[in-house]
Every structure is written in C-alpha cells, then in structure tokens.
Structure prediction request, 703 residues.
Amino acid sequence: MAGGRREREQVAGRAGGPSGVAARLASGLDAVVLATVAPDGTVVVDAANEAARELLAIDAAGAAGPTAVAAPLLARLRDAPARGRATREQLVLRAPDGTPLPVEVQFESMPGRPEQVLAVVRAVAEIDLDALEREAGAPVGTFRTERDVAAVFVDDALLRLLGLPHELALGRGWLEAVHPDDRGAVERAFVEAVAREDALVVDCRVVRPGGEERWARVRAVPVRGDDGRVAGCLGSIEDVTDRRESELVGSQLARLAEAVPEPIGVWDARWRLRHLNPAGRRLLGLAGSGGLGDVAFDAVVVERAGSPSARAVREEVERAGRFSGRVVLRARDGTEHPADCTIVRDAGGPAGAAHHSFLARPVAAGGDADAGPAGRERTTGASWFRSLVQHAPDLLAVLDADGTVAYVSPSAERLVGYRPDELVGSRLSSLLVEGGRPDLAAAGRSIAGSPGVPVTLEGRLRHRDGSVRVFEGSITNLLDDPVVRGIVVNARDVTDRREAEDARRRSEAALRAVVQASPLPICAIDRTGAVHVWNVACERLFGWGAREAVGSRPPFVTDDEEFDALVARVFRGETIRGHEAVVARADGSRLDVDVAVAPLRNRAGRVVTAVLVLADVTEQKRAEAALRESEVRYRSLFQHSHDMVTVLDADGNVTFQSPSARAFLAGRADTSASLVDILSPDDAPAVRAAFLRLRSRPGAPRS
Prediction:
C-alpha cells in the first residue's frame, strides 16, 4: 500500500513466541491474564491461562519473565491503572528470533480495584507497523485536567516534551512550564472551553529546564463525569517548533515573492504552471486568471535566435538540477519578453521531481534590466503596492508609526461603510467596539520587536450603519520595507462564519441537552463500534456509567457478530428500525429491546457516527407471551368442556361453538348461523329481546 509499510503475517504455523505460543493464539485461544500493578510498578500475576503463562514466561511464583516478548505487554499493563478506562490497543511483539507477532490487547481495570487489570491478548492477521511507529514517535503528550486546569494524569510523552518529572507535572505544574507571557492565555482558553463545553486549540511557548523555549500547540476537549456534567478536559500538547519555523520562513518567502517586481513561479513535475506571483501574472498577461494549470511551460518559453527552446531548458534542468540563462517568455497576448531566468528542480523523493521553481528578470532589447517593466515598477513602489491591493476582497490598510491611516483599500466602503478618503488621516482603532477590542498594546509590543512577523488579531468593528462586524486578520511591521514603509493591517470579515459557528455550537449544545434529557436510552458509536455518547437513560437502564461505557464497545452487547453486522449496515448508510435484540445489564440480567439505528454524516457526506435509540420492551414481550398463553388456555378450556358454549357477535351470529354444543345441536347450527336458527320458534322472540338488552349493557350477565 502506497505511503506506508503494512506487514501481513499469517500467524498459523509461525514459530514465534516461547513454546509455540503463536500457534496457540492462531488457533483462536486468547492469552488471558489478571494482574495487580503495585504503586512501584511491580506486576503481580493473580491468574493466567496456559497461553498467557507461555507468552509472558510466568514462573511458578507468578512473576513474569523479563523477556523481549513480555516487555512491551508489561509496560502497557503497568500504565493501565493510570488510564482509568478500558482500552484496546495493537502491539507488535517480537520473538527471540525477531519474528513479529501482531496482537490486539484489551486492557480493563476491575470495578472497585483499578490497580487490578485484566488483559486479553488476541492474534491479528495484519497490522500497520508504520502507524504504530509514527504514533510511538510523535512528539505529542496527553494529560487530563480537573475543571481548574489542575492535571490529574500526564503521560510519559508529555513529561519528555516539558522536561519535567512526573510529580512536578501534576496539578498546575504542567501550566507552570508554559512561558509566563502565554500562561494566562492558555489558562483562559481552558476556562472558556469548560464554560462553553467546546474544544480549544491554542499555541504557546513552553520553557524547558535550562531556559530552552519551544513552540507548542495545546488542544483539549471537555469530558464529563458520571453525573453528566463537565468534570475537566482531556488534552494534548504537541511540539510544533519546527513546523512553526517552517511556516514562518514559508510565509516570509511567500510575502517576499508577492512583493518583488520580478516574476516568480512554480511548475509541477509535468511542467504545468501551479503558482505565479503578481509580477509574473502581469508580465504574461494572466492577471485575473483563475486557474493556472492549463498553462504549459512549452507555451511560455519559446525558442529564438540566441535563446534555447523549452525542451532544451527542461533537459538541462533534468540533467543538472538547475538552469540559468537568457530565455524568451511569451505572454498570453503573443508579446514576447526576453528575461534572465533561473530554474531549480526541487526533488520529491524516489519518484522524481516534485516541482520546479523559477525566477525571471525581464530585460529590455538593449539589455538594460532596469529599463524593462520590472525596472519601471521598481521606481514606483508605492503605486505598485496600491495596484496590488486595489481589488482585494479583504480590508487592507497601511498605518504610520503612530497608528494613523496612510492608506486603506477600496474594500473598506463595502466592509465598514466608509470611503477610503474618510478613513485616511484617522485612526482605525476608532472603529473598534468597546468590549471587543483586541489587545492592541500587546500586539504593538510584538510587532515592534519583530519586524516582518505577522501577529494575528481578532476584533469587532462598528459599521457605518451601526451594525457590528467581526474581523480577524494580522498586523505586520513593515516600516523598514522600502516599498511599504508602514504597518500593514490585513483583515477579513468573518461575521457570517462566526454566527454560523455560534449557531452550530448552540445547536450541538441543544442536541446534547436533548439527548441527555431523553427518557429513551441513546448512545452513539464510531466506525470501530466504540461508544462516544452515553446518555443518562442508558445509565439508568443498563447500570453502567458513561465513564465505564465511553471508549469501548457498548457493554450491553451479548452477540458480537449481530452487533458488528448492524454497525456495518449503518456505516454503509442504512437506517435500521424495529430491530429486536437481547441485551445485558450490569447486574447480569437480560432485557428485550427494540433498536433503531441512524447514520450521521459529515459535510462530505461520509458516515462518521451511528446513533442507537433503544426501547425496553421486556414487559411488552412478557405481556404478549402471557396473552398468547391465556388464549391457548381459553381455547383448550372450551374445547374440552362438557358445557355447551356458543359465542355470538354483536348481530347475534355464531362465531364459535364448543364440541359439546355442536354435538347437542347435531349440526343444526354452524359458524354461519344466527341465534334464531338455534332456538325454537316459540322461544326465539323472548331470547332475542334478552340478547338485545344484554348487548346494551356490556359485561352484565343475563340468563
């Protein structure tokens, strides 16, 4: 499979673990061990089947052997009590001869005794080793906090990332590792996420022992306790220093490419144009052109006396990795421009070149570079900058060092209702709404100390019509830039998007409230069958709390094959109604339930969640069974009774006769006869009148 190494091993017949344990696992025999993890990490085996004793090399005293096979399992077993919930993991164990043994392990702490862990090891046919290696090597640490951001669990990856021992990382210790200038923002983000019951993403700096600063991205989602209320957050911290530096360098180079008067572009591996800066678009007559993919290198570089053909340039790049020389560039309108051009191949690995970057410097017929279009643009930098942003959809402004507006794009009238000439000479901050102002003082300090580095901001601006619009963007100190000589503000109107996000959050919160308040048990599962929503009604009906259910298969499942088939149908897009099943409760009893399952799709239309709504129909089933039994008894009673029994409908027609009645009447009446057919003509009127009176008083006997 492209992009990863997938190792497939048929476990049967493998001579893997000690004493042929691989063959035992392959035969379907799970290795099962119940162990107690002491505070010092010692693992004491309480019980184990034969396969587990072989796999872990357990001796007669119950101690696991320090073998290469046992070590990965023991390490995860020691961590199980700290995880606080059942988990299912994939591991690759290595036999002494190096043979890989892919296994799936279910770890589950015993109720009331979190230090006692049950581990079930099962062989799997295949496993993605690359995915496991990436996961194991990823610089991401996880932690769990209370509502006040105090950590109650941190993993080893987080300790390595922060450079802290375990005891110092717990509580507020992990937060103390955040740079003092960023600590308040991180803590506020957690408090707001808990209050909104929403996820958070915030970038900050962490300071490792010795003073080393690293950039980190903190992500967290609120988690609920057994009472259904938010009890804290489950978070991760990822080291993004290299990525941030790469993005910063990339953004600086991209801004430079956009600003320079020389054409700069990128051709892909098939020599189709993928990117071209404004100067290049103007030179080739592609300004305003949407897609560039239809522009071929051979159509742009043309052969003339003294200049090479496109084919010759491509061959030189493929041979030497670069080309430098004079070429002739043809614009879309047919005009031709001599240019000094440099093209560099950027290798994309064994498959060959990923793309080709080029820089061109147009020259005049006489060879004077500054006399060409690029040279003329260089003499009018301010007008060039204005032409670049004249039709931009975002709000672009250039401020003087004291914050006075020196230039604002025409889009200002559409976005905030003011003409550019009305804003020039004023302060853009005068439009900021009180209570929605970004920290301009902090932003000012940041851009003053970091010229050329954009600082992100968000704020609310008052439109001329009195409405409030939400903007997000950046502010960049380009006072030293010879073209700009100002502070550049680039902001976009995100009001509609924020309102849509707020509406979505309110809708999701309302949906969560409805689900939690529903009298019907509702749970949601992912594609693997793991629960991620478990409402209060589920807790009441089945007896398991959300903490026990979330993260693993629904504990009420009694037939794994039936459940897996149901999940597969729903994730193929099918809605299921009226499915009857027998499920378990925590106390060991069984229930009859009616199950409805519906798929939930993401914006791309892919099914990402299955929602199960269950109704307890145990009593209904019992009542139906009792009714059927009663009917059988009723019919049996009359079939064998010596009394003559005849059942009439409301019109006096016979609907049932017992055998004794049929024998007595000697066939004079069947189920098609009426009351008068049975009786003597002398008695029929009186009996008919009595029947009518009886019909008018349902339930009253009459002789």
